[in-house]
């Protein structure tokens, strides 16, 4: 518990106090945001705002997590937590290249579509392989080959399809992890269109995993405090406390970053931050065995991505008609003349409600 609070506090102080220095540095390096011409006109005042702010809270997360762990004798540094950081940093690296090309070429397109997908696939595949191979405590690997909701679903164990040809199970598992990673990273990225929107929603979603990880730690099947022998109530997850610690570190870093990212934003997270946060959410969902529950915990990101998918499908099906004024959905509210702060706060409320429903489902399953 001490490591968790220390990690969150150190990350928060790092991003809160040092973000202004990064803002000055990014301005000096001319790392300003490019605004696309076909977007809402109100966004053009944001042209030149320092971008790649994800670098700040990723560094804050690493600082807070490792310093807190070392101060507490290495508590929290486990294969599970390191894999979450791998997804955070790996996906952020793909986003950084995308951001850098946008800034250098002064256009809305950075990496080409297939290049970006290739980068995400590379990170996701490395993560998937390591997650079921690295040893962890209590004889459990950080991830399992089963699709999970609140626990692993035995009937959806992808390894079952490998009885005749083992390679099939491996391919299906890697494919599933990459689908989940693509959904999470692109969902957060699409929500990153208004000052503070993706940052605040990510704090809520990642905060849920602080509670989930800590609860799974207290109810662990091996060494659990309340129900160590009750397999109907205990959780078979590896290193749940370390997952709570790394989630707390990211949350702390984001709270400090939000101070400067809220409207009017002094710095923008960019694809560097959005893809990194999506990667961390994906890894936490996989390692806490709550993959399908991410639909609720990351519900706002699902809505943002879903609005784009529905709009495109409707556009093609109707020969050019639009269901929404503009997608992602927050742009529709802008074109309806809602103030940006109003949109952000209301969508935070939606995100909070969905997170609460997700946590409620998690705890109710245990009670049942």
From TrEMBL:
Pfam families assigned: Glycos_transf_4, MraY_sig1
Cofactor section: Mg(2+)
Keywords: Cell cycle, Cell division, Cell membrane, Cell shape, Cell wall biogenesis/degradation, Magnesium, Membrane, Metal-binding, Peptidoglycan synthesis, Transferase, Transmembrane, Transmembrane helix
Its membrane topology: Multi-pass membrane protein
Keyword Transmembrane helix: yes
Domain of life assignment: Bacteria
Family: Belongs to the glycosyltransferase 4 family. MraY subfamily.
Official protein name in the record: Phospho-N-acetylmuramoyl-pentapeptide-transferase
Membrane-traversing stretches: 6-26, 52-71, 77-97, 161-184, 196-217, 241-260, 267-286, 292-315, 343-364
Molecular function as annotated in GO: transferase activity
Pathway(s) annotated for this protein in UniProt: Cell wall biogenesis; peptidoglycan biosynthesis
